[in-house]
Amino acid sequence: MALDLLPVVSSTSACCTPVTAPVMSEDDAEQLARTLKALADPTRLRLLSLIAAHEGGEACVCDLIEPVGLSQPTVSHHLKQLTEAGLVTREKRGVWAYFTIVPGAVDAVAAHLGTHLRIGGDA
Q1: What is the DSSP letter of 24?
Q2: What is the CB neighbour count within 10 angstroms for residue 100?
Q3: Which positions ≥6 away from 70 have C-beta within 8 Å?
Q4: Which domains are seen in the chain, by residue range?
Q5: Considering the entire predicted model, what is its pTM?
Q6: pLDDT of 23-57, one tens digit each?
Q7: Which end of the chain is more exposed for a tag (fewer CB within 10 A), N or C?
């Protein structure tokens, strides 16, 4: 039985391709992951859609409970997650809280992904 040997590769040649596009920093990756985690929940996506669909992109929490079919505390928890992710703002008016989509927040997430996840930085 013949034994085929593999050729020895010179240790001076590069084994990796060079980085040719912007690379996401560790801090950016952590922030984006928090935002994407907030967006990765179907209820939160529906809440964002409902808020955006209201006049002026603003909705009272009382108007969001019935459409998602969850209790007020559960809806408030989801809205807190969206607020902490920087996707909505909260304004207290009397006993109710009103939520507004942060202008450009979703576009910023998409742009950030586009900048750092295109092969070779191509548009």
Answers
A1: -
A2: 16
A3: 43, 78
A4: 26-121 (1.10.10.10)
A5: 0.76
A6: 888 998 898 899 999 999 999 999 999 999 999 89
A7: N
